[in-house]
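Now for a typical sample entry:
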Amino acid sequence: MPVWGLTRRRLLCIALCLAAVLGALVLTALLFPQQVLCTEIGLEKGDVIVVLGGGSYERPQRAIELFRENAAPRIILTGKGDNNSNRHLLLKGGVPSSAIEQEPASKTTRENALFTIPLLRKEGVHKVILVTSWYHSRRALNCFRHYAPDIEFYSHPAYYAYRRSEWRRQGILGKIRAEYVKTLGYWIFYGIWPV
């Protein structure tokens, strides 16, 4: 019996076309994660740099570079677990203690945003530079923008293990795959559009 006036042959053709398009999207995402997951939206100056927890040393190192370039006068570290070690790296890199603020309770990117945004609003911040790993930058930027559309967020990710030749050695391939799953989950459960 035809569904919506479509024959079985047409339904099969439509299903095969949709499967081919989905397969092409998945293949593109796996072959070109730099173009899909990474976003850098430049801003010369901001009110504050927010460094998301996780990664290795690359995130605080990128924040040190931006601080030295006078991109922003302050840095907020957000995330439980490596908050104190990231603070130590910032201090070692020449960032004064008075320029560092910590949000040490968040455990996820969503919590990074939800727990940091009240601090930003309380301090009257208008322009924020987000620092995270390149493969995490698009989801992080989308998450902060989703929960605080009244604040301007910009992305300046760390490019540690950006080249494909470094992925296996640095264990990035698994993180790239996990990032796609997390991005889909954030879209489904929190309504955070992945584009």
Notes: The longest strand covers residues 48-52.
